[in-house]
Amino acid sequence: MTPIEPHMFKPDAPFFQRIGALIRRERATRFSGGAIGYLWAYLTPVAFIALIVVSFRILQRVPPIYVSTELFVATGILPYVLFRQTIGSMARSVIANRYLLYFSPVTVTDLFLATAVLELLNLIVTVVVIFSLIMIFFDGSAPANLLGVINGFFMAWAIGVGFGRFVAVLGQWSDTLARMVPLALRPMFWISGIFYTATELPNSAIQILWYNPLFHAIELVREGFFLGYESQISSPWYPASFALVFYLLSLILERYVVDNRRARHRL
Amino acid sequence: MIVLDNVSRIQRTDTGTLVLLSEASEYFGKDERVGILAAPGTGKSSIARLLSGIEKPDSGNIYREGKTSWPIGFAGGFHPELTGAQNITFLSELVGQDPLESIAFCIEFADLGESMGKKIKAYSSMERAIVSYSFSLSVSCDMYIADEVIGVGDPDMRLKCSAILDQRLENAGLIFLSKNPAQLEKHCTRYLLLIESKLVPCENLDVGVKALMLSNERSAQNPVAE
Question: A194-222 pLDDT, tens per residue?
């Protein structure tokens, strides 16, 4: 018969160990099964950039700022991809990993935090690799204000986390809403200044699009990157408040969903 | 130790709400082996989740001292695309257990050496049950919760399961929820009956089974409006 260690009370896993384990587990499973596995996380934005650069060429569009098309498109697409992927991952992970809640002390907060951190780590790798490649092959100009660039990306991530958490809880509550969110977010690709800047827009459009938090994040990245570029849609406060408000709303909605046993997915 | 203080648990269904547990108060000691007899579909798993601390009650309080297990043999945390060893490593880290200790335990106890490197999706359902069972018992807890599953595998393996569980229970308590009175009798020394959402003491399991049958017939004759 198997010998057993003398019984010893083991404390719960510390917070950071849990988050670390969740991140590594997610990394190991997200793209499992495929041949190139985790490279997908980095290839998706590259393919996105390539596609838009090609359409710029075909349409003979020149970036409104005096920089290479590759660099201009990258500053627009990367915050957008980060935003969309964070929302998607937040909504997916809390449903896909819900059985991990059986393993005390894992909490829903752990699941959300691990996903958010993993998306941030992915982004850092993607951004560094893509901008380095662009600088080497297309355009040698380095960002004018690195902190500004980081701030812009951070805002895109924060909106993804805050709004993503809200969407995730919404998805736990209602199947209809869960399916509507990606549709509702589809126009974000066109209204966030990915292939144009705020300065090109008529005043009437600026008045409306100012309320799109992602537009701010993208323009913040550009203001940081391109020396002398200034945008009318680049307040850090608006996207930060937007993220915070939706984060708090998600907590309230979650309370309602959990307390009233409204979750669609049972444990 | 687990204490239920006036605990209620409801379940929302498509047609309305169902009371699974109504104002239950009970003490489960670390030196006890308590069996809860319940008819199928009356909320055993939900109550197991309450006891394990996975879900909160709708009203009342649950107090816990020491570490409580998840329902023994729960396999939902195993990712099909990861190997047995990878799964156990991640889950051990999540619960604060030494992964190597858990893997060693599973290999030694259940002779899983060869399957540890296989992906879970390639496991037979029996292997899956055995690996999740051994992983549950590789973690030292002060209270073990069992939801219907108390042993897995062929008869020999089941004997080993009983033996290892007995060893664990020298220093821990057990709450075993089942519809099977024979199983409860084998593993428990005190019994409760989950009947009409109430948790009541039960001296004799035969009486308990009859009571459940009567209650079931009664509710079939006069379905309760929900």
Answer: 989 988 899 999 999 999 999 999 999 99
